[in-house]
Design a protein that fits this description.
207 residues; 13 helices
Length: 207
């Protein structure tokens, strides 16, 4: 793990954050009405103010994870909003992706980020192999950086090594689910959603 002390500090901040739920909900309602592609961003301007944009994307991914209770939706929503990509069908399709259906698989902060990397670098033409290649290159960079930052891309290892100190497995039983909620799971699981969105944005912007 690259910055364990920084992530421990971020977890504490997330745990104690006063979440402005109505403001977050209102922002998503605007996206629902107007769509994600209402305004294409100026990528060059974003690159010139890289840190500011990355900070905003990370914060919004955390907020959207908290509101939706989904790390996959949180990371994807922040990125789709920032880059004017995708639609709400894609968000619905991400419903089972936290931990690959909470089976102990890949974290939703990774799958949400990968989906938007595919939207950005890929192509509508299924035989555009150059687009596939660009997306694969972006994906490899993204996954490598995520592992470097948090130590793993797998939900159980992130929960044990970074977030809770153990694997909560909240979908295994009602008892586990209550324990996850009592441990402020939705607050703390905003961490990988935010980190995933930030790294994916960095890859998209060429940083």
């Amino acid at each position: 793990m690259k910055r364990p002390d920084a992530w421990k500090k971020r977890l504490t901040e997330l745990q104690n954050r006063a979440w402005e739920v109505e403001k977050i909900r209102a922002r998503l309602e605007t996206l629902r009405r107007e769509g994600f592609d209402r305004k294409r961003p100026d990528l060059e301007s974003m690159r010139k103010q890289m840190t500011e944009y990355l900070d905003r994307i990370q914060r919004r991914a955390e907020e959207y994870e908290y509101l939706t209770h989904s790390c996959a939706k949180g990371s994807a929503l922040a990125l789709m909003e920032a880059f004017g990509l995708g639609n709400w069908d894609m968000i619905r399709a991400l419903s089972p992706f936290p931990g690959f259906g909470m089976t102990g698989g890949i974290c939703g902060g990774v799958t949400g980020g990968l989906m938007v990397i595919g939207l950005f670098f890929g192509s509508d033409d299924p035989e555009n192999y150059e687009g596939n290649g660009r997306a694969m290159t972006g994906a490899r960079t993204f996954v490598s950086r995520f592992k470097e930052e948090l130590g793993s891309i797998l939900c159980p290892q992130l929960q044990e090594g970074v977030i809770f100190g153990r694997y909560m497995d909240p979908r295994a039983s009602e008892e586990n689910f209550r324990a996850f909620q009592e441990a402020q799971g939705y607050e703390k699981c905003a961490l990988p959603a935010g980190v995933g969105a930030r790294i994916a944005a960095e890859v998209i912007l060429g940083g």
